[in-house]
Amino acid sequence: MSGSNETDNSNLSGQGEQTARLVILAQNGDHTAFHRLADRYQPEIFRMMYYRTRSRMDAEDLTQDVFLRAYKQIGRIESPALFRSWLYRIAVNRVKDFYRRQRIKSLVGWVSLDEEGFRESEEMVVAPDAEERLDRRDFWNRVEGLLERLSKKEREAFLLRFFDQLSIQEMTTAMGKNESTVKTHLYRALNKIKAAMAERPDKDDFWESI
Amino acid sequence: MNDRFEERHLSEEEFIQAVVERDSLPDGLNAHLGGCPSCAERLRRFQSRLADMGRMARSSAPSPARPFRLPQTDRKEPLWQRKSILAMGVSAMVLLAVVVWRPAWWTAHRSTPPVAFDAAADQRLMEDIDAIVENALPEAYQQVAFFDTPDISDSAGDGEDFFDWIVPSLDEEDDDFLS
How many angstroms separate the CA atoms of A136 and A207, rounded? Predict the structure, then answer.
């Protein structure tokens, strides 16, 4: 067990070193290095966007935007090892901007915030199999039910920690908050989620299904 | 102090605190968690369910359709290349200014050639000379002069007829002769 952990840690530190090297190369204008960074982190940033927008198209656009901004601002990174959390910081800000724009558009009447129909059509592309689609929809409905109970900050902290798998340290960079604040948001989020579970008579089934 | 903590199971708040970050628990509680199979199992189950939720989210999410590639226009060119492009741009602007703006300025200031100016001045001078030849007096004096001068225009013909009667013109004789 401990041997396995040591291997994982050495792999992680190796990956971190490689990322740092690529960041330095990209800072010096090496496009290939930046493309390699993008290839490495694009899937997780895309998923991160999808968790928050539940739209494949929006997730695609936002992900492209995140990497474009990252490329333009990569010279500002002082610690190349923090590239991942810095990337999440850009992504978190882009999601905020996205929802701000959506709210403005909905106020003007350009878009409706109720996009269930659109999501269903997108889910057909993601999961063409009807049963699988139902499972996915059911899962996301449950997750949304939980997340609705949280404030914006608590929701972000919860998603970053348990969906995006960021460490507390990485979360501080991604959220732009100090460690104590991040832990407080996370603690409150977990407290509310536990309370929500306790309210459900079929709480075990609910958690088992998750 | 630590012993007192180790005697009891973790409360709900402490349990959540352990999920957030186990190291943030007081040493006594941390030691209890390490030694109590019941609390350890509760913590493990809660953490694994949260991890399962993350795993299910990942499996339920699609993959990006296309890899990210920098657009051509957003690629940063090397410094020397950017400088040469800038220099070429500036040169082109200067050339454009010389070709387009300068002749326009030149033409604007030389639209009437000097020869044309001279010809017009000559023309005006000649008109003035002609006017003086016709009427040497200034216009104000011309009327006065006309009042004092007898009008001989009507009698001019008579005078010629009279002199022609006294001294017949040779031309007329020639004319008669010829005719």
Answer: 15
